[in-house]
Design goal:
Blueprint (H helix, E strand, L loop, with lengths): L2 E4 L5 H10 L3 E5 L10 H8 L7 E6 L4 H11 L3 E4 L5 H5 L5 E8 L16 E6 L18 H6 L2 E3 L8 H8 L3 E4 L4 E3 L2 E2 L1 H18 L7
Parallel strand pairs: 1-2, 1-8, 2-3, 3-4, 4-5, 5-6, 6-7, 7-8
Antiparallel strand pairs: 9-10
Helix pairs in contact: 1-7, 6-7
């Protein structure tokens, strides 16, 4: 069963709606230039209300290690999603936390450096946008991901919506799917109906597809 992450949570109302709809993970963006940025102090208060079985994922872009670790501990994050140019050594320097290393993908050549990240929990593949580090709504080239999903836990992001997530799961068979802009009213504010529709569509596709790739 593919896990489902709702990213770009900025308020308790949206967090509670995502959990109620069945999300497996919530993403909090700590990149100040993002329209979905949430200050660490506000994220901390939201995280206190997230049930223990739902992963809390912090999204960071090229941030100082000490700052990332401070936010991780303060918010009780289960996963660090590193969305910038972080090196394999940087990714492996954290302990007692899962690491998702993001790759903004244009074509298969963008996947070649990822072998150096072996041993981390998952690779997140997002669509490429020259000016944005995620949340662009740009779809990754699904048909080029078959080999990667055999080598890593693959988190599929980029341009996913309630309308296409079923097809994405059928095509890629990912470990998890990650949605942000595809279930929003506007950047940083979720559409609760579309969140529920996305989660339902992903669950149905996983069950139909017998999806069980990846490890917890």
């Amino acid at each position: 069963m593919a896990r489902i992450k709702i990213c770009g949570i900025t308020c308790l109302e949206d967090a509670e709606a995502a959990v109620e709809a069945g999300a497996d993970a919530l993403g909090f963006v700590f990149y100040p230039r993002s329209p979905r940025y949430v200050p660490p102090a506000e994220a901390m208060e939201i995280c206190k209300r997230v049930p223990p079985f739902v992963w809390k994922v912090g999204v960071f872009v090229n941030m100082d290690w000490k700052v990332v670790d401070m936010i991780r501990k303060g918010c009780g994050l289960d996963v660090l999603q590193l969305h910038g140019d972080e090196s394999p050594e940087y990714c492996r320097s954290f302990s007692n936390v899962r690491i998702f290393k993001a790759c903004r993908m244009r074509n298969a050549s963008d996947l070649e450096p990822l072998d150096a990240y072996s041993g981390i929990h998952a690779i997140l593949v997002d669509g490429y946008h020259p000016d944005l580090w995620g949340g662009s709504g740009v779809q990754a080239p699904w048909q080029q991901l078959e080999g990667l999903s055999k080598r890593f836990n693959l988190v599929l992001a980029g341009g996913l919506t309630p309308e296409n997530v079923g097809k994405a799961i059928q095509c890629v068979r990912p470990y998890a799917v990650d949605v942000s802009s595809g279930v929003e009213e506007k950047p940083g504010k979720k559409d609760h109906v579309r969140m529920a529709q996305f989660i339902q569509a992903a669950r149905e596709a996983s069950m139909k597809n017998g999806n069980g790739n990846g490890r917890i």
